[in-house]
């Protein structure tokens, strides 16, 4: 996002794929895998993984005729394979974009370009990839009003945390340090350190030194 801003990309297309992990077509995914993975035993294992079904909280078994299991270690990789044609298409068109699993952001130079690109990307995703775009959650607008993986562009044009990400951090810190938890101080400090270090490692790309000082207080 920051590099796109520096290069004059002040607008963005933010598309949301509706129930992506629940609606991936198994036949299309397996066809894509066969092009990349010639091992029939591995392909068979992945197919069994996809169609194994799930056991619900009430003990009932539910089949999985489509979709990939959310939270599974293989799911992000399968998502990347499903959306690889989108990456190739955006690259072919010369667009600047960022994608992680089913979350992607395309950066362009004008509002008109954002609307045009959004229309063409929706057409590609729904007709070529047979996925559904959630139009109520998708938008074409200013890059500074967009969020990607907890980051946004601040007033200075640099990468910062989104307000939602910052609020989640505060709520989690309050929960860890709550006096009503009934845990030892040493245990609380250990948990607090682990959370803060993990958070700052993830958000270390952002320019939020002033915010960190405020939180430290």
List the defining traits of the structure above.
two-stranded antiparallel sheet; 4-stranded antiparallel β-sheet; 14% strand; 217 residues; 8 strands; alpha+beta
Parts with pLDDT < 50 across at least 5 consecutive residues: none
Largest sheet: 4 strands, antiparallel
Q: Give the overall form.
A: flat
Number of helices: 9
How are strands sequenced across the largest beta sheet? 4-5-1-6
Helix content: 40-55%
Q: What sequence of helices (H) and strands (E) makes up the elements?
A: HEHHHEEHEEHEEEHHH
Gyration radius over CA: 21 Å
What structural category do the secondary elements indicate? alpha+beta
Strand elements, count: 8
Terminal CA distance:
30 Å
Mean pLDDT: 89
Strand coverage percent: 5-15%
Secondary structure blueprint with pairings:
Blueprint: H1 2-6, E1 11-15, H2 20-23, H3 26-36, H4 40-51, E2 54-55, E3 61-62, H5 75-92, E4 96-100, E5 103-108, H6 111-127, E6 139-142, E7 151-153, E8 159-161, H7 163-176, H8 185-202, H9 209-216
């Amino acid at each position: 996002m920051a590099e796109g801003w520096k290069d004059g990309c002040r607008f963005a297309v933010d598309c949301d794929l509706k129930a992506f992990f629940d609606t991936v077509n198994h036949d299309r995914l397996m066809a894509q895998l066969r092009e990349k993975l010639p091992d029939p035993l591995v392909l068979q294992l992945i197919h069994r993984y996809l169609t194994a079904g799930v056991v619900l909280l009430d003990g009932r078994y539910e089949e999985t005729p489509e979709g990939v299991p959310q939270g599974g270690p293989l799911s992000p990789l399968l998502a990347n394979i499903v959306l690889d044609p989108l990456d190739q298409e955006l690259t072919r068109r010369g667009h600047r974009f960022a994608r992680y699993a089913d979350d992607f952001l395309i950066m362009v130079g004008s509002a008109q370009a954002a609307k045009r690109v959004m229309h063409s990307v929706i057409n590609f995703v729904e007709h070529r990839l047979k996925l559904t775009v959630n139009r109520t959650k998708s938008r074409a607008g200013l890059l500074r009003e967009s969020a990607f993986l907890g980051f946004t562009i601040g007033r200075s044009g640099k990468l910062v945390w989104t307000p939602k990400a910052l609020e989640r951090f505060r709520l989690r810190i309050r929960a860890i340090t709550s006096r009503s938890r009934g845990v030892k101080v040493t245990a609380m400090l250990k948990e607090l350190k682990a959370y803060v270090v993990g958070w700052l490692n993830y958000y270390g790309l952002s320019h939020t030194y002033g915010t960190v000082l405020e939180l430290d207080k």
